[in-house]
Structure formats: C-alpha cells, structure tokens
Amino acid sequence: MSPPPLAFFRLPGGYLTVRCLLGTLLLLAAVLKLRGLTADPVARMGIFSTPEFQVAIIEYEVFLAVWLLWGKAALGSWLGALATFTAFAGVSFYQGWVGQSSCGCFGRLSVSPWYAFGLDVVILTALLLGRPDLQPLRDNPLLSLRAALLPAAGGLAGIVLIGAVLLGLAHFSFGSVPAAIAHFRGERVSIEPRLLDVGTGIRGESRAVSVTLTNWTEEPIQLFGGTADCSCTVLHDLPVTLPAKESRTVSVQVSLSGPPGIFTRKAAFLINDGGIKRIDFRMTGQIVRSASGGR
C-alpha cells in the first residue's frame, strides 16, 4: 500500500512540538488581551471592539490553549487549531486590506495585521506538517470525528456558561459591562466609542459625528475643551457638565483632509476632575477623490 500524501513531510517532534508551542502562544495572547481589556481598547473595528466579544475570545483562547497543552483528543485539538487560525488569518488579512494599523491580537501591543497574517500562515503550515496521526480518521471518519468534537462541544458549552456568569456578575455588581470595564481600568470618565469611524468621504469634506462621555463618579465633572485644529474640533458643544453617574453626547467636527486612503487620527477632550485631565480617543475613516470612490 502506498503511503498517504505528505506522509514523509512532518516536522521533528510532530504534533507534540506544534501543540505545545501553539498552546503557549495562545495563553500569551489571552493574557495580553486581558491586560489590554483593563487598560485600553484591544480591538480596532466593529464587533471586535465590544468588551463582550473580547471576553469571549479570551475565554476561547484559554480553552484551546489548555486543550493543546493537555494533549488529549489530539485530532480534535488539531482540527480546532486549524479552524481557529484559518479564521484568524482571514480576519488579519481583512484588517490589513482595509488599512487597520493594529490587529488587536496581542492587546495593547501594536502588531500590523500583515505581520499577524504572516504568523497565521506559518502556524497553519506548521499544523499541516506537524499533524497528529490521521490513520484513525481515514479508517473510521465518523467515529473519529465524533470522538474529536466531543471535547470541543463541552469546551464551548463551558465558555458560554462562564461568559454568562461573568456578564451577570458585571451587571449585578456594576450595573453594566462598560461600568465594570471602567472600574477595572480605573476610569472616572469613559468615552464611547474610543475608535470613532467617520466613514468614507471626499477629500475636503466635513463630517459631524458624535461620541458619548460617561461620568462614573458621584460628583459632576466639567468637560470644557479639547482638540481644535484643521482636521478635527471638539469644541462646538462645550462646555458641558457631566452629571454624576450620567452620560452626555458631544459632537465632533472632522475634516477629511490629507491624501486618499485609510487614516487614523488622535484627538482628546479636556475635563476638570481635580485638575485638568485628557480623555483620548481616535478617529478612522477613508478619503477618496470623488463621490464614486475612485482614487
């Protein structure tokens, strides 16, 4: 009988080496995301910027890391890792394609999406070359897949349960997930969103967008100033007093200046909270030459 395809192409140490390295990498990524979650946004776009999504990703990475390091049901953990890093590669490629400056994979550590995509491709290659014994899968595919996916089903059920408990605790103890995040970050005033997407527009166009500031303290805080330059001004609705435990929406005027392409800019509000303090946020968008989107 001829050997199966790629039978002679396997990494030294096989799946043992690959799973230990990947398990360690996933634990490191989860720790950095957790660190970022309590200090600054750890993602850059859409659903990835929500705390709930970040908590779910951290839980999943810890689960897969423990499974890989444990070594049981190797076929299942291998398939799970293949699916996971294929999804990671897709997200990283998309982030790089649209011009995101950081993938958010490692919390506050800024890593280009293209570097992350390259790492994902290397990992997928290592998984293919350092695969476990696939003979049981060839002999009895249905039974092998059932045995492989059982731990995955149990792990995902555990993630959902733990996530529900954490969300319940956040709402019970702090009233909301944003309030819990603000508490652990040590924020007295929070801004949402921290990454403000102004959309796509023609160069020279002006946009009015809004952000919401929340005062988590027991005392009113005055919002009195902030960025005012040719590309962004936050002064139109100021000064504003943020009552205790309340939120206020403030407009931001953005001028789409600069060369065509994706841009990211920094801006800030100034508050009087026992002294002058900055509340930083960023803006992102895309500048095109014409209304049709041509460059």
Structural description of this entry:
There is one protein chain. By secondary structure, the protein is α+β, with helices and mostly antiparallel strands. It has two domains: 14-181, no CATH class; 188-288, Immunoglobulin-like, CATH 2.60.40. The protein contains seven helices and nine strands. It has helices spanning 14-37, 51-70, 74-98, 113-129, 135-139, 141-174, 177-185; strands at 189-192, 195-202, 206-215, 221-226, 232-233, 240-242, 247-255, 261-272, 276-288. It has a five-stranded mixed β-sheet with strand order 2-9-8-4-6, with no helix packed on it. A four-stranded antiparallel β-sheet has the order 1-3-7-5, with no helix packed on it. The radius of gyration is 23 Å and the shape is globular. Residues 1-8 and 39-44 have low confidence and may be disordered.
Largest sheet: spatial strand order: 2-9-8-4-6
pLDDT < 50 runs, ≥5 residues: 1-8, 39-44
From the helix content, strand content and strand pairing, which structural class follows? alpha+beta
Oligomer: single chain
* Helical stretch tally: 7
Helix content: 40-55%
Q: Give the integer mean of the pLDDT values.
A: 81
SS elements, strand count: 9
- From the spread of the alpha carbons, the general shape counts as globular
Strand content: 15-25%
Largest sheet: 5 strands, mixed
Element pattern in H and E: HHHHHHHEEEEEEEEE
User: Span from first to last CA?
Assistant: 58 Å
Radius of gyration: 23 Å
